[in-house]
Design a protein that fits this description.
Its cofactor is [4Fe-4S] cluster. This protein is an alpha/beta fold. It has two domains: 121 residues, Arc Repressor Mutant, subunit A; 272 residues, Alpha-Beta Barrel (TIM Barrel), CATH 3.20.20. It is 43% helix and 19% strand. It contains 20 helices and 18 strands. The strands form four sheets. A nine-stranded mixed sheet has the order 10-11-9-8-7-6-5-2-12. It has a four-stranded antiparallel sheet with strand order 1-15-14-13, with helices on one face. The termini are far apart. The structure holds S-adenosylmethionine and iron/sulfur cluster. Iron/sulfur cluster binds next to loops.
């Protein structure tokens, strides 16, 4: 007699086979293949497809959400799978003109009542078998601006997490935010609580560019704060820089890179500015109050400049857009979140995935607070992951590292997927985006700049076989971080 488990795994294999068998490459579609040109970095595609590659699964009907999540959290997690905790603080004092992530303007009362609900949610979710059954490798407190919490709240939040969840001994616990008002008292409270990594959005050091983006501090203030925090010699201090902001010329970008190096920070992310519809920048440009953001070609040149700069200054490359200057920086959460590692979401607007489900928590504060008050999961939408979610995660994490391995891709697919995709890889190679070396597909500098398009392209050519029944075509679910 065939057991339930083996029946389920046979069905899984059949579904994966259909994903691989139904690969459909349209070689006339230049949004997939890229354009053949002498300058692929600047001209292979017209624009970046989206911030992240992805594909949604089948939505779980709203009345079934509570039961589905309860069941998922009531079983033990597989011990050999990496997992992370993501906690969202959806408040900012001021909205930056370029930002996609802004949710709520902060007011003390609102933040305090949200904070109380968040502690409750953490405590409740920790009580499930899934949460207690295996160690967490990374915790990320993101936003919004978690660094705007009070010193006591930051310490209490970290202590709460450490007390309630089984964290691996080397668990990375990151606090995200900005340097504005992040004084020594806050830093010391965070360290006391157990935060062991700090990620600050700087975006640009240039005071004029910063003012145009509604950033709050001057270059001198930022450099003084970074110097004070690295002076503790206690935890990695990592910075985000954006390229393509209005008024950020190539010379200013070069100064930004030099300022990062001189600041003594332990690492840096270089992010390309993505202009999502509805950001304040759009209106300001239309009204003539701000010059437009950098063109795709300028952004490509900025990426090239950044990449060359990092290599010249012997910065350690951790991914296609993240570098470390010291061994202290590991960037564990950022790399794990792009693999098939589970992510337990906590807080309004947090996203995650676990036990084959993609989870998106309520963004509206009232909905979130009401659900927590009623001891309900604060989730408006959840999706069952597509059968190919493991393959897609392997593609995304490979592209993020700048290299796809035949062994790993075929292992995720249970089939010869690397060989099946080879015709597409060959066109990309002719177009200067990748180089095929034995069992590895390595991204060229141009390929690294266009990595999200390449990842999305691979996902799209498999999608007719991967799309589950009743899935909303092309809808994406963001995963936090
Ligand atoms: C969610 S934000 C939180 C950071 C923090 N609140 C701050 O003010 O720096 C994390 C990072 O997302 C990046 N980001 C925000 N808007 C972006 C956009 N439109 N395109 C690309 N990256 C963006 C920024 O580099 C930012 O540091
Ligand atoms: S960049 Fe940070 S502070 Fe600015 S709006 Fe976005 S999340 Fe808020």
């Amino acid at each position: 007699m065939i057991s339930q488990n083996s029946r389920e795994s046979s069905v899984e294999i059949l579904r994966l086979n259909s994903v691989v068998d139904m690969i459909n490459i349209d070689f006339d579609d230049e949004t997939l293949t890229g354009t053949h040109s002498s300058d692929p970095l600047r001209h292979a595609f017209s624009r970046k497809k989206s911030a992240h590659a992805g594909m949604a699964g089948a939505p779980v009907p709203f009345p079934d959400i509570q039961r589905t999540v309860t069941e998922a959290l009531s079983i033990r997690a597989p011990e050999n799978k990496n997992r992370c905790l993501y906690i969202h603080i959806p408040f900012c004092r001021v909205r930056c003109t370029y930002c996609n992530f802004f949710q709520n303007a902060s007011s003390q009362q609102l933040v305090d009542s949200y904070f109380a609900a968040l502690l409750q949610e953490l405590e409740w979710k920790a009580s499930f078998a899934w949460s207690q059954s295996a160690p967490f490798q990374a915790v990320y407190i993101g936003g919004g601006t978690p660094s705007d919490l009070s010193p006591q709240q930051i310490r209490q939040l970290a202590q709460h997490i450490k007390r309630l969840y089984p964290l691996a001994p080397d668990c990375e616990i990151t606090l995200e935010g900005r340097l504005n008002r992040f004084d020594n008292e806050k830093f010391e409270h965070a360290l006391e609580g157990g935060i062991n990594r700090f990620s600050f959005g700087v975006q640009s050091f240039d005071t004029t560019v910063r003012k145009a983006a509604r950033r709050l501090d001057s270059r001198d203030y930022l450099l003084a704060r970074i110097s004070a925090l690295t002076g503790y010699n206690a935890a990695p201090i990592v910075l985000d820089l954006l390229y393509g902001l209005p008024m950020q010329t190539l010379d200013i970008w070069h100064d930004d890179l030099r300022d990062y190096l001189a600041s003594g920070a332990d690492g840096v992310d270089l992010y390309q500015l993505i202009e999502m519809p509805g950001i304040p920048l759009e209106k300001k440009v239309a009204q003539g109050k701000l010059p437009p953001a950098g063109s795709t070609q300028l952004k490509a040149t900025m990426y090239e400049t950044g990449s060359i700069f990092m290599a010249r200054h012997h910065q350690k490359k951790l991914s296609i857009n993240h570098w470390a200057s010291t061994n202290r920086e590991r960037s564990l959460y950022n790399s794990l979140a792009k693999t098939s590692a589970d992510v337990l979401p906590v807080g309004a607007g947090a996203g995650g995935h676990l036990a084959g489900l993609q989870l998106m928590q309520f963004r509206k504060l009232e909905d979130y607070m009401q659900a927590i008050g009623n001891r309900q999961f604060p989730m408006g939408m959840i999706f069952r992951e597509t059968p190919a979610a493991g393959i897609f995660a392997e593609i995304k994490s490979g592209m993020d590292q700048g290299v796809l391995s035949r062994l790993r891709l075929d292992e995720a697919a249970g089939r010869d997927l690397f060989a099946r995709l080879m015709p597409l890889f060959q066109v990309w190679q002719e177009n200067g985006l990748v180089s095929i070396e034995g069992d590895y597909l390595t991204l060229t500098l141009a390929g690294q700049f266009w990595a999200v398009n390449l990842a999305q392209g691979m996902i799209d050519v498999m999608s007719s076989g991967a799309r589950p029944q009743h899935a909303p075509g092309g809808m994406k679910v963001p995963v936090s971080g």
